[in-house]
Amino acid sequence: MEKTVKLNNGVEMPQIGMGVWKTNPDDTADLVRTAAANGYTLFDTAKQYGNESGVGQGLQEAIKESGKKRDDFFLTTKIFNGDQGDYDKLRAAFNQQLQDLQTDYVDLLLLHWPVFGKYNESWRALEGILKDGQARAIGVCNFDVDHLTDLIDHAQVMPAINQIEFNPFIHQPDTVAFCQGNKIQLEAWSPLGNGRALANSVINRIAKEKGKSPAQVILRWELQQGFVVIPKSSHPDRMRANRDLDGFSLTADEMEAIAELDEEKHSIWYDKYKWSGNPNGVDDYIAKPNEF
């Protein structure tokens, strides 16, 4: 049976899913269809990725091929930063996202980044989307303790998820502790450290001892901490391996050995962007076809 976590509003969410960040829009439908054929039901996309239409098409193909229903899949997308701050604008933009995804609801809707001066009004719009049944759960991405504290002070609905960069090289302990203390489920983006962690000697030693791949060891390390993980692969064998995480666990010493790899350096962070309130930042963008 698929392992799930229960969000703070009672919604059950698969603990292992497929991310599509940096997936070429032309290839996304095939990736989703192939992943679904290999057991994946959770798919994570965003307007900023420029491939929501591919996810929607792939999901429709998967439903047709498998005989499953839309309700058998768990679909996550995110609000684009340029759509934040105005209630009506955000809701209109999200309605277009639903059309691109070929669905009338998503299972999880996230604010992609904490846009300076706008995320509280954006959250009010997400609360409206939740109330109207266009999302089963709502949450945030990349919010630190200060952002979360401010959001909660203004919110009617507690975020169900905080999706953050988390892997053997970055742990964000203050944010993790805050979320765990407030029953906000943690989800790891870039759970394999953009692939860099796969070559680490400590992880490879543990993998050899366990008879597992480095990716399986890393994902097991994250699952044992209660995270939802969304690794990406276009290869069916690796797709299956990334879900095959039962039947082994890491010892306390092995968990600590991986924890000691922490460098606490973000690969991407919001301070680079103007919408963060940083006047020296750069503008946000939506990925264009064939950009990757």
TrEMBL record:
<keyword id="KW-0560">Oxidoreductase</keyword>
<feature type="domain" description="NADP-dependent oxidoreductase">
    <location>
        <begin position="16"/>
        <end position="262"/>
    </location>
</feature>
<protein>
    <submittedName>
        <fullName>2,5-didehydrogluconate reductase</fullName>
    </submittedName>
</protein>
<dbReference type="InterPro" id="IPR036812">
    <property type="entry name" value="NAD(P)_OxRdtase_dom_sf"/>
</dbReference>
<feature type="site" description="Lowers pKa of active site Tyr">
    <location>
        <position position="78"/>
    </location>
</feature>
<dbReference type="GO" id="GO:0016616">
    <property type="term" value="F:oxidoreductase activity, acting on the CH-OH group of donors, NAD or NADP as acceptor"/>
</dbReference>
<dbReference type="InterPro" id="IPR018170">
    <property type="entry name" value="Aldo/ket_reductase_CS"/>
</dbReference>
<keyword id="KW-0521">NADP</keyword>
<comment type="similarity">
    <text>Belongs to the aldo/keto reductase family.</text>
</comment>
<feature type="active site" description="Proton donor">
    <location>
        <position position="49"/>
    </location>
</feature>
<feature type="binding site">
    <location>
        <position position="112"/>
    </location>
    <ligand>
        <name>substrate</name>
    </ligand>
</feature>
<dbReference type="InterPro" id="IPR020471">
    <property type="entry name" value="AKR"/>
</dbReference>
<dbReference type="InterPro" id="IPR023210">
    <property type="entry name" value="NADP_OxRdtase_dom"/>
</dbReference>
<dbReference type="Pfam" id="PF00248">
    <property type="entry name" value="Aldo_ket_red"/>
</dbReference>
